[in-house]
Structures are given as C-alpha cells and as structure tokens.
Amino acid sequence: MKVLFVAAEGAPFAKTGGLGDVIGALPKSLVKDGNEVAVILPYYNMIAAKFGDQMEDLGYFYTKLGWRWQYVGMKKTTHEGVDFYFVDNEQYFNRGAVYGEWDDGERFAYFQLAALEMMEKIDFVPDVLHVHDYHTGMIPFLLKEKYHWIKAYKDIKTVFTIHNIEFQGQFDSGMLGDLFGVGYERYEDGTLRWNNCLNWMKAAVLYADRVTTVSPSYAEEIKTPEFGKGLDQIMRMESGKLSGIVNGIDTDLLDPETDTHIPYHFSVKDLSGKAKDKAALQERVGLPVRKDVPLIGMVSRLTDQKGFDLVVNELHNILQHDVQVVLLGTGYGDYEHSFSWFGQAYPQKMSANITFNLELAQQIYAGCDIFLMPSAFEPCGLSQMMSMRYGTLPVVSEVGGLRDTVEPYNAVTGEGTGFSFGNFSGYWMVQTLEKALDLYEDDPKAWRKLQDNAMTRDFSWDTASLAYVDLYKQLV
Ligand code: ADP
Fold first, then answer.
1. In what order do the strands lie in the sheet with 193-194?
2. Ligand 1 centre and the CA of 330: distance in Å?
3. Is the CB of 310 inside a 6 Å radius of any atom of ligand 1?
4. Which domains does the chain have, with CATH numbers?
C-alpha cells in the first residue's frame, strides 16, 4: 500500500503537540508493516535550522494561488525509513511559529495546493492520501473538484483524521476564488458553508472517503452538541464513515530503559532509577529533594481544553496536603500567570515552568508519582500514555481518549492503571486525586501493582497502525 500523509507538523521536524507526535510515529509504524509511506510538511525555519544540512534539494515549481504565482521549493530527507518531503516558501514558513500567524488561512491554503501539485513532481501518487486536521482539510475537496482532471490522481482515496475538532479553519468565502482558485458553487449550495463561513473541517468531513478520529469515545462524543463544537450535526450525518482509532506513542523513543532525556534509566522490574529521577527532577525544578512526598506532574498546553480552570480553582486546596506539584506548559496568559503566582506563593511545594521543553517533559513523566490531566475534552491525549509508560499514574477525567486508555483503579481487584472521575468538576477531581494520594501513602504494594499494570500496557503504534491498514484496505 502506498500512503501519503500531509500535515502541518510532524516530529522530529516540527512539533507543537499530539499531532506532531502522531505524524512522527504512525508513518514509521506503517513502513515496518511493509507499506510505502511518505509525508509532506511545510519547511518551517526551525526545520531549516536544525535539519537543513540533511536536506536534498529537489528543485522547485510555481503554483497558482488565486491570481498569483507562488514559488514552491521541494526538499526531501529520509528519517527512520520514511521519506519526508517539504514545501519550502520563505514568505509563508520563515516565521518562527508553526501556527497562530495572522495569515494562517493563506499559509495553509498555499500549503495544500503545493502538496497536491507536488505529488506528481516527486512521483509519489499514493493509493491513500491521509490528511490531518483543518490545515489540510480542503485537500479532499480540491482533489475531487479542482484536480479531478489529472489522470494519475483519479484513483486516490482520501482519509481525514480529526485530532481536535475545536480548530476548524473558518474563513471568509472569498478565499475560494482568491486563494484556492475555484468557483463559489459549493459555497453557495451550502456544502462548504457553515455559520456563514467557509469551514475547512466541514469540507473535509463531507469530501473525504473516510473520517477518523483519535479514539472511539471521541468519535461518539463529537456527534453530540456538548463536544461537537458546532459540527455535531455534520458528524451525525456522516457517522457512517466516521470511526475512532486510539493513537499509540513512540515506544522506541519513550522508553524508560533507554530515554536519553532522563538522567537515570529504569524498568518495570527495577524502579530504583525512577526514585533517582525523582530526586534529580526535584533538584532541577527547585523543589526540596524528598523521597517520601508524592510528586504530581502536569505537562500541557495551558488551555481550557485541558481542565486548567479546575486546577487553578482547586490548587490552594491541593497544596494544603503534603505534596509537591511540578507544571510544565505554555498557553493562555491567565493560566501562565496563575501558575507562576502559585509557584511564588508555595515555593516549597509548587514549581511552575512556563516554557516548552521536551527534555524537561520527559523528566516529569519519569520522575513524578502522579500525572494530573483533568481535560474538559480530550480527542486522544498522549501525555497520560507517556506517564503510564514511565510508571507515573495518571489522574484523569473520563472523556475521549482518556476514558479509552486509563483503566481506573478497582480497590476490590487491585486492577487498573490510574484514577479517573466522571463528573467534570473541581470537587470530583480533588476527591480522585486524594484517593490516589491515600493509596500512594497507605498501600505501596497496591501502588506498585498499578505501576506494573501501567508500564506493561501496550501503548505502541502496532495496534493502531494495523487498524489504519485495515481501513485503507477497505478503500482501495
Ligand atoms: P495536545 O495534542 O492536545 O496538546 P497531547 O496529550 O495529545 O495533547 O500531546 C501533547 C504532547 O505535547 C505531548 O507529547 C507532551 O509531552 C507535549 N507537550 C505539551 N506541552 C509541552 C511543553 N510545554 N513542553 C514540552 N512538551 C510539551
């Protein structure tokens, strides 16, 4: 099977969150299963800075963006068996940020046109074109309504994966003519229109041959008004082609026995290295080095999605216990300021690290006892799986992928891999966290059993990539 991924980010080249992890790991796993896989990404300046000397130059062409011709440089490198191709244009991607620019609509409109035209030039016309999130959501539409005349493209099937329905790509309809160079018929007949905007995600859901999202629970949730972010009706309408496949994590990279980011290695059989990692982490983030105190970690975008309103409201209460909290994240200013304030108010108990740091993230997964992730909604979530892999037990809300990946502790059987609460409220979050703290303090044997369970769960991509191959096979 020949599969082409097109996405806005992919590790190790560019990563801001879970999407980057998935694009880094799933293609690799598909290659291991014997598929031919390539990825197209934008050539951001941070990629040029870090990987520039590994890049092969494949020449350039011009694509028509509305009435303008725009340069498309083509670069390539091979990483762990996967061919990564890059769309190079300094005007759009020499910015220092992946998203959040004033002209993201134009940047990613250009990227999608360039990627579609590039398939012929790099001679990689796939059986399945797998696109991800709104930044590439117009591709299935463009393939069927703009590039349908290219003979080589006529059998391509498309899969669209929703990593987060919150970001839909809502733009002025003028973009259809001005950037995509297509007519307004599909906007005027309502197909591409939603709330009087052009909606890229809606376009993707209607035009893709299959739509997936990153956990079975989230696939159900987005059909409801509570989680559908206004598109629930479309999700219900298209539910016949919608399914959920839980993400894996890169278990080669995220391995407590070999992880190069952590100072001490450990395994499920011998956790002595984890205790040393805890001490090293406490020292690094400026907390008193104490073996006996439960250390609670958080690594996240600081947004409402991740339930930080609950955390901020309850943090005073939580810090009344004999605990330490280490937070790593960036995001909404209010949360950044609140956590910094708590860090100053409770210097012996709270360390707020308002930055993006992959190495510190690994040290938190490895060195903590508990990982707190009370998301309001969570398409899949990777952090809870990463923490379980390192024997750090998650306390999570029962939504989306958190529900599908964390087995709640059962005091009768001793089974489970973490702790969870169903009612999204600060009260239940604290109750559940206290239950975890009690078990940590009172019953080390039961705690160790949960660590065993968590660390031996299979979170690898093997299962997920087989599910994707099954899906692709149904299409071609
Ligand atoms: P989302 O994609 O919604 O942000 P996920 O849990 O799916 O959440 O994935 C988040 C990924 O980003 C994880 O790999 C996590 O370790 C990483 N991450 C989030 N914030 C930071 C940060 N401040 N520093 C380093 N890594 C981070």
1. 170-171, 197-199, 193-194
2. 10
3. no
4. 2-248+461-475 (3.40.50.2000), 272-455 (3.40.50.2000)
